TrEMBL record:
<keyword id="KW-0449">Lipoprotein</keyword>
<dbReference type="InterPro" id="IPR052177">
    <property type="entry name" value="Divisome_Glycosyl_Hydrolase"/>
</dbReference>
<protein>
    <submittedName>
        <fullName>Uncharacterized lipoprotein YddW, UPF0748 family</fullName>
    </submittedName>
</protein>
<keyword id="KW-0732">Signal</keyword>
<dbReference type="Pfam" id="PF02638">
    <property type="entry name" value="GHL10"/>
</dbReference>
<feature type="domain" description="Glycosyl hydrolase-like 10">
    <location>
        <begin position="24"/>
        <end position="306"/>
    </location>
</feature>
<dbReference type="InterPro" id="IPR017853">
    <property type="entry name" value="GH"/>
</dbReference>
<dbReference type="InterPro" id="IPR003790">
    <property type="entry name" value="GHL10"/>
</dbReference>
Amino acid sequence: MKHLQLALLLFFLGITAVFSQSQKGVWLTNVRSEALDSREGIETAVSNCKAYGIDHIYVVVWNRGHTLYPSEVMQETFGVKVMPRFAERDFLKELITVAHREGIKVHAWFEFGFSSSYKKEDGGHILRAKPLWRAIDHKGELVSKNGFQWMNAFDPEVQDFLLSLIVEVVNNYDIDGIQGDDRLPANPSTAGYDAYTISLYQKEHAGALPPSDYKDAAWIDWRARKLDLFAKKVYETVKAIDSNVLVTMAPSIFPWSKEEYLQNWPRWVKEGWVDAIIPQVYRYDIKSYEATLTANLEFISKKDREKFIPGVLLKVDDYIPSEDFLTQMIQTNRKYGILDEVFFYYEGFKDHPLFFKNTYPKL
């Protein structure tokens, strides 16, 4: 009955015809998932995506200080070509081959962005090898937030390193898109107190030091603008290599994204530096979901609304949304003319296989 109600809603909204042409995506990760650990796992994941009407896969290629694909950049810079777990095979190449065979697009998701490690007090092997790359907070310490340690996103050398990984993937793989998220481009708003960034600020402010209050509005704006320029550089660099490769970002919701991680993503959309923005509208009840969704839509002009794709929470740790709540979130998206969504993350499909089989048209 629930599936019939949703189908009727879509019919009366008059969007059934275009529904199959819009994007239905999912994030595929190596955390709490073994889908990428074998060719069989990849075949199963792609088969499930096809059965569930998913036509875009956002697959992790960078986390915990390692690429998950064999990288010459990592080999030359840090002497570690690939995350040891994936040392025997190139799963990215396998996934692209299998997914393309089924008409599914694959995006390289640079999950950790400017974060060097998770729960490593010294920032992991990257910052042990490159201590000058450390992001420094207002206390003079390595920036660490919510368990993640950070590189200095304002340092040109660090930016060039991240960009070189993106370029490597675009050059070496038949990829359909690349994606940053709430860590690319980003830095916690506590960052910016390293020698390089302070010097840069002083050059632009007649020798004055940055405010000691890291939440100072002008200081937030100044740092956010620096990261805006990196977002622009990523977009222009990718498009110069292959204009068909999509550049998408999946930041936190705004304005929290700017206040906490210096991500002023409405500007990225306005300036045309992204092909799609996929904010993480992760909420646990429909009232909060709708309020957050509509609040973020206010930052997007009508002409850019088609670039806005909500990120929908499908599973995290032990949390799984009910089928009723999933239905409500999709209905809410359609209510505001949004035809697309991307789900976090793939393993959540196992809890709702019939829902997805009966909700989305098949490829």
